[in-house]
Automatic annotation (TrEMBL):
It holds the Pfam family Nitroreductase. CDD domains: nitroreductase (cd02151). Belongs to the nitroreductase family. Keywords: Oxidoreductase. GO terms for molecular function: oxidoreductase activity. Coiled coil: none annotated. SUPFAM superfamilies: FMN-dependent nitroreductase-like. This is Nitroreductase. It comes from the Bacteria. Residues 5-59, 61-149 form the Nitroreductase domain.
Length: 173
């Protein structure tokens, strides 16, 4: 597990290679196995492989989402706020589990924040994504996870750079 965490980096450049169905299935099994508060499982997911839709989703934000247009796969993470008051935590856990599962099968990924972000001054990123994918109002959009075979190399994390000073034992200071 520690090795997986040290090697995982945000990957924003992808090969054009499509992601095999078995790998997409594995990612979705991992997502659906995510723990959630009171096991309510308020999340839902949209698997997007259509190039035109991915191109549209890449415009969700003015900054930080454009790289998505080269990705062969996007998984949109939704949460039903009418089912759980902690849907954000549940959706975030599912997101990182998808990212770690992707890393474990040789795929690169990057989180694209959608909630609390803007498409432009009039339209939120959530509203934009909702319109692109026909998502109903009760479902909030937490993030999009861009996924593909890595086409960039990044250095692994080194245990020497860990911020151990952020950890306290028994009492804060
Ligand atoms: C909650 C969250 C939101 C993020 N939003 C974006 C984003 O919108 N666009 C982007 O390119 N990267 C985004 N990232 C990726 C971070 O920039 C990245 O995880 C961080 O710089 C650490 O780099 P690493 O993932 O390679 O360890 C996000 C990561 C998290 C956890």
């Amino acid at each position: 597990m520690l090795e997986l965490l040290k090697t995982r980096r945000s990957i924003r450049k992808y090969k054009a290679t499509k992601i095999e169905k078995e790998k997409v299935d594995l990612l979705m099994k991992a997502a659906l196995l995510s723990p959630s508060s009171r096991s309510i499982r308020p999340w839902e997911f949209v698997i997007v492989t259509d190039e035109e839709l991915i191109g549209n989703l890449a415009k969700s934000k003015e900054h930080g989402s454009l790289f998505l247009k080269e990705a062969p796969l996007a998984i949109v993470i939704l949460g039903d706020e009418t089912k759980s008051d902690v849907w954000i935590e549940d959706a975030s856990i599912a997101s990182i589990i998808i990212q770690l599962a992707a890393e474990s099968i040789g795929l690169g990924s990057c989180w694209i924040q959608i909630r609390e972000r803007r498409h432009n001054k009039d339209v939120t990123s959530e509203e934009f994504v909702r319109r692109v994918l026909n998502i109903p109002k009760n479902l909030r959009v937490e993030a999009i996870i861009a996924i593909g075979y890595p086409d960039e190399k990044k250095s692994f994390y080194d245990e020497k750079s860990l911020l151990h000073e952020k950890v306290y034992v028994n009492q804060y200071k």
